[in-house]
Request: fold
Amino acid sequence: MDIGILGLPRSGKTTIFNALTRGHAQLTGHAGGAAEPNVGVVKVPDPRLETLAAMFHPKKVTPAEITYLDMVGTPRGFGKGEGISGPFLNQLARADALLHVVRAFENPAVPHVAESVDPDRDIATVNLELAFSDLGILERRLERLQLGLKAAKPQEREAIHREQEFLGGIRTQLEAEVPLREQTFTDEEARSLEGYQFLTAKPLILLLNIGEDQIDQQQAIEARYRERYARPGIALVALCGRLEMDLTQMSEEEAGEFRAEMGLPESGLARMIQVCYDLLGLMSFLTAGPEEVRAWTIRKGTSAPKAAGKIHSDFERGFIRAEVVRFDDLMATGSLAEARRQGLLRSEGRTYIMQDGDVVEFLFNVSRR
Ligand SMILES: Nc1nc2c(ncn2[C@@H]2O[C@H](COP(=O)(O)OP(=O)(O)O)[C@@H](O)[C@H]2O)c(=O)[nH]1
Ligand SMILES: [Mg+2]
Reply:
């Protein structure tokens, strides 16, 4: 699961990145204009893994992972309505979701690029950049279709006209500031759009980076902005990047005490993982054996063969069936053998929809030709 971080310069992107990944990337003002993004991998904590490990004594335990990408070289024109292009666009286009860091903190030592702190303005600015980028992609495709029309055979023309009309409709809505994630498509239309990797189609997390002096109002600020911006496909979180980054440098115990004192229930890192899971509709299934106990991330509603394909494409192609037991049932019975004896280890076929906490073994057959 890849999350692409974006936002205006000096909004605290790298600070947030460090807080989320316990990283030590250079903040603005120190970096030498590197073009490569900071990449940080976060292990998704799951207490079920430890419990399974105690039962299976595996050689290794592998949690699910979320990867955060912090774009280093924000393009010069970014935030000025010039759209997003080049490597910056490519990095964002590959992400499963976007994390927009919105500056809400005051810091006279680090002036805001637009001179004043105004989260609503910045959210609108970046949304506009994302829409411009998608419009650019649409324009280029429409131009190519128009060119293709000249050389097309009569029987091909209708299909081209249909696509022109479809993409033109999307363009009109985008121009009216309706992001793709809020436009409605049939399943077939949605599939035909996947290849474009439109930015406004991606789930979006608005992360309000509040100042140290606003921590006691964190919940109120979050509620206020959530009311304004939360809708399907958009999540909103308020947290103080600088404080969260400082806390990752402390021991767990120290950080815990500090949080309790400040009235902060859990780490920003843990909250963000939960937000990503909720926003993207994610869940985990588990595999367990003497070699490895492991958690795998999939979207809710994923079928057993697709889930198997997460592990290896051969598992999906040669899928025969899945042997499934609920984590709680496995714990209650104490072993796979006992779960099977009690009829709780089920054989499921191709149409089975995976459930959170399923402990699975996939049976597959790959014919060698
Ligand atoms: N006071 C304050 N300063 C912050 C906060 N978050 C970031 N900064 C400062 O703002 C500057 C830019 O932060 P950075 O993470 O490099 O921003 P980026 O350009 O978006 O990656 C740095 O000097 C940070 O220390 C915050 O929550 N409070
Ligand atoms: Mg940065």
